[in-house]
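Listing 4. Sequential folding, example run.
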Amino acid sequence: MLLVAVGLLGTGCGGTEDPTQQFARDAIESHLAGDETYDLDHVHCTGNPRPWLVEQQTTESICAVRRATGGCDWFHVELIPVGRQVTAKVALRSEHVGCSPA
């Protein structure tokens, strides 16, 4: 079974995104494009977990998306393999919460 990341990796640390984080962020940005409720310049997603320093591929990500009025909403992004490609299913998880899920 694939593990689900539980913290935002690289948030505020100047780290780079892993491919899962980038894919999830791109899915969120596409899903919310044109919605002025959100500041899409501030989207941070969980990446692949690294238990014992060995990266595992995850099928889910949680993204904190900054609201234009402050605070964040959290979105759940499910990564769904379709043939040789991956698609994403995006759903709102929590509204008006902090910007760092733990």
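-- end of first protein; second protein begins --
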Amino acid sequence: MLATGKAKIQVSMSAYLRLTAFVEIESKWFGFGIKDATAGLKLEGGLDLSCDISVDGELRLVRPV
């Protein structure tokens, strides 16, 4: 364990998820009927994590009693 007179630790984390549903329809020539149809889901996401540590003073090893 390390001890000091003044220490500051900041941790921040952000995450996002995006779910998109889509339908694609391809019609036949002259607009009579459907040639092809596709439906699906698309999932996108990300995670950002940062840690900032600042110490003002002297670090020293503290031994448990």
